[in-house]
């Protein structure tokens, strides 16, 4: 029986090598470059990680402008949200600020990943206008801040929703459109939350 072992081993080796070589045909014809990023979201105590694949096709025209404006807007929401947690007296205003920091930090990271895949560098600095606004907010008393911040969030997110709805219909890049469509419901929740606080008697 032992004399049959060696031929069988050779046959097995031949089959494995043939399978390995058969996969090279795809790489010869596939010229599309993709970049995979990791999107991590936490639900209760369970962390769910999913991979997001973006093409390396560069953004053009209005798509580039939109991404830069969206990134700048998220940075402002993050910093003003941090101030809300520090200065606000009303717990609902503090909670609104906490939600803005949490959600916009995630959205900003997602947008940076998308932009990086497209070879677009985003600034991580606030504009002078935003810096001046934040400085004015730092000088507000708790009650004044509680009035100003929800009003600001209503104004900002009304404009954000309008711009994102427009981008959803006009974006040329499919990756960007997908991100916009996923983000738009989040912004609408922010707007509704800010409106509810703004309309309540605090």
TrEMBL record:
Keywords: Signal. Pfam families: DUF4142. Residues 1-18 form the signal peptide. The keyword Signal applies. Residues 62-197 form the DUF4142 domain. This is DUF4142 domain-containing protein. The lineage of its organism: Bacteria, Pseudomonadati, Bacteroidota, Chitinophagia, Chitinophagales.
